């Protein structure tokens, strides 16, 4: 969910689904509605227009549900920290399970973060660089 | 704000180009990058046809212009480049060149060439991103996946030269932050040669592939007259046959030495936008090679004073989406007195509303993407059925699937 | 249009012409802005309206209408006092200016009579504190605004 972001993070999330990074082989799929989602990825500074929307989207998710804050803006405002339209991190609106820092974080970092959340532990690094999912 | 009842919907639709009303919209989804203002659209339908379109913007209004007045000149580069993740370099470029115009000395030639190099990288990446997304919205996900895979080649180059794939912070006041390593010049040539071939392939694909042509030919047509009235910018302007490009009319960076070949198309529809943008990708590849060939030696950066001399500067660049306008006012201090940004999509919104009129709901995803919007607009639209005085909202994904099914049945 | 023609226009409208390296500034009183914009945009070569900028100058608010012709900028400039920040909208004759004026309405509190967004918000959130000054005014304090909107 784009809660008022420049969308740098959003295009890296999308890039994580494209062939070079291919999060889909790990079972990660973008769904159109919060009612079908297990995990909510949130980017952006949550300006006043988006705060209630974020809460509503979170409440529409069936349990068990998780929230991942992606990018410096969602973590704590990022470079927009003291702009009059910028919030100070999404964890003041919804509970956050995982934070992925970066501006924007690389697709690999996003996949790593999601796997960490889903597996409960960081995926094992393998010498030739390919992650193995247990 | 409460909604008017009954037949007043008709008067609401007819009473002027812009009638604003609040709605419980939920734009979400990472589909499009956003500027200051991602938005949703309120569509007024009569039968199946859209008769009026009212945008509601402000979902990403963050207060950047005000914040800029409290940050130093250099810190503002990092702020402005995060207005938009896709044309981020052009934001920082327009800002730095605008500020440098207030200073009484020249920026090194090598720095200008390097700026042009990265600007063209960004144009290639942005146009490819757009075409991939257009494919996704039209139901052609294979195209999306292939193009975004090819786009990674440019992102590799951008990362190699600046350290970041998206918010590059490559330009700075007085020049650029890093020099171009020798091996990177060779790698750049290899990659753009590859991308040139891919652009040619995609051009033949989009012109022949029926899934795309049935949804883009004749869709979203704008006339030259509309263009003159509503002042759109960028490819949206050039696809009507008007050959205007800021890199050509008002050269900045090194565009005086390595100018673009301004591309135009004449049909003014989405199909011609696809061809136009792919032609621009090919031209950008040519410019990358020429820039590398003509790159002068010398310093890539000079010291820039902490306080900028007082004055006003009006600067614009040709971002991938069109003219990006910056107005900078200095009172002689270490922070700007006023910076005004007018993004390309802002200039195109009125034209986009015209583009949608006369189309059906099924066409909305493709036509709206056609203007290469910089917002999460696609994620929610509100639909008003004027005859039945009914109003409902529809999600972006629903709209996309509706469009695909509609054309499959045809 | 040549500099002579612009100078004649300036005199006719009761304003002044200031050539500059990038922008030629045509300063006119607020009630002649529409005439100036119409004259400039009907010059040969099609003047494209790039945007309209508002600047808080302290006592007054300056409004800059930036026109780009293909080789240079012509800037139609006027000032309205903060005590009475109103003037006529050009959206009737130049639809392209509609959203730019709406932005200034939101961010600087200038009223463009005839603009379809007058009295409504284009950008600013609905929860923007009504007793806070418009955000781009010099006397506005972003930190206070954030507190008022509970963003801290």
Can you walk through the features of this model?
The complex is a heterotrimer of chains A (134), B (410) and C (152). With 134 residues, chain A is an alpha/beta fold. Helices cover 29% and strands 9% of the residues of chain A. Chain A has one domain: Rossmann fold. A three-stranded parallel beta sheet of chain A has the order 1-2-3. Chain A is globular, with a radius of gyration of 15 Å. The model of chain A is unreliable at 128-134 (pLDDT under 50). Chain B is of the alpha+beta class. Chain B folds into two domains: 8-60 and 346-409, no CATH class; 64-342, Cytochrome-c3 Hydrogenase, chain B. In chain B, 47% of the residues lie in helices and 14% in strands. Chain B has 15 helices and nine strands. Chain B has helices at 8-14, 64-68, 73-80, 88-100, 109-137, 141-162, 182-208, 210-216, 224-230, 235-238, 246-249, 270-294, 344-356, 364-370, 396-409; strands at 39-46, 49-57, 171-172, 175-176, 311-319, 322-330, 338-342, 380-385, 390-395. In chain B, the strands form three sheets. Chain B has a four-stranded mixed beta sheet with strand order 2-1-8-9, sandwiched between helices. In chain B, strand 6 (322-330) and strand 7 form a beta hairpin. In chain B, helix 3 packs antiparallel against helix 4 (88-100), helix 4 runs antiparallel to helix 5 (109-137) and helix 5 runs antiparallel to helix 12. Chain C is an alpha/beta fold and 152 residues long. Chain C is built from four helices and seven strands; from the N terminus they run H-E-E-H-E-E-E-E-H-E-H. A five-stranded mixed beta sheet of chain C has the order 1-2-5-4-3. The longest helix of chain C has 11 residues, at 98-108. Chain C is elongated, with a radius of gyration of 17 Å. Chain C starts with a helix and ends with a helix. Classes of the chains: A alpha/beta (134), B alpha+beta (410), C alpha/beta (152). Chains in contact: A-B, A-C, B-C.
